[in-house]
Design goal:
Elements lengths: L2 H16 L7 E5 L5 E8 L3 E7 L2 E8 L4 E9 L3 E2 L3 H7 L12 E12 L2 E11 L2 E16 L6 E12 L15 E12 L1
Antiparallel strand pairs: 1-4, 1-11, 2-3, 2-11, 3-6, 4-5, 5-7, 7-8, 8-9, 9-10, 10-11
């Protein structure tokens, strides 16, 4: 093998082994038909109330090789679904979500923490009613695979965090109606 052929072969081997490390981060669009933030709280100690938001949008960026990521989510607060139409309107009022002034809530990550190949926690800024606070979502489930129907790369995740609603100016009737609110997000996103 002449010198040029050996050099070419060495460059090809280097390029092949370096390619995964140079892979670009992938961007995924949130599937609003399969992404539902839910929230639960104690109602006078009688029961745990469960509600959800029906409209969510955003993006997730994932760099598998570098084990980094980013999450940018917007929740349409007017899409709150308590299971009772009258209460949907009540919870959108000034004392709670005040959707007339603050129709959306947002979460923007500052860091995605991994264990091995899977994210386990997402630090970020949660904004509700114009109040922004740092929170950490615990990732309880994560998968990355080809979507069986769309034939595109997809991610799925469940994450949870507990906040105090009074810290977001939504503390009416606390502590009788629980101040601690558990937010659970079930998310699916498809690669662009």
């Amino acid at each position: 093998m002449n010198r040029f052929a050996r050099l070419s072969a060495a460059l090809l081997v280097c390029a092949a082994t370096a390619a995964p490390a140079l892979a670009a981060p992938a961007t995924y669009t949130v599937d609003g038909t399969h992404t539902f933030p839910r929230f639960s709280y104690s109602h006078f100690g009688l029961s745990t109330q469960l509600s959800k938001f029906n409209k969510t949008s955003g993006t997730v960026t994932l760099d598998k090789a570098a084990r980094t990521g980013a999450v940018d989510i917007t929740i349409d607060m007017t899409s709150v679904d308590t299971g009772y139409e009258t209460f949907d309107g009540h919870i959108q009022g000034e004392d709670f979500l005040d959707t007339a002034r603050y129709p959306t809530a947002t979460f923007k990550s500052t860091e995605v923490r991994f264990e091995g190949d899977k994210p386990v926690a997402i630090d970020g800024e949660l904004t509700i009613k114009g109040v922004t606070r740092p929170v950490t979502l615990k990732v309880t489930h994560f998968t990355n695979m080809p979507h069986p129907m769309l034939k595109k790369d997809a991610i799925g995740a469940d994450a949870t965090v507990v906040i105090k609603r009074s810290e977001f100016n939504a503390g009416k009737f606390a502590p009788n109606v629980g101040d601690d609110v558990t937010i659970t997000v079930s998310l699916e996103a498809i690669q662009n």
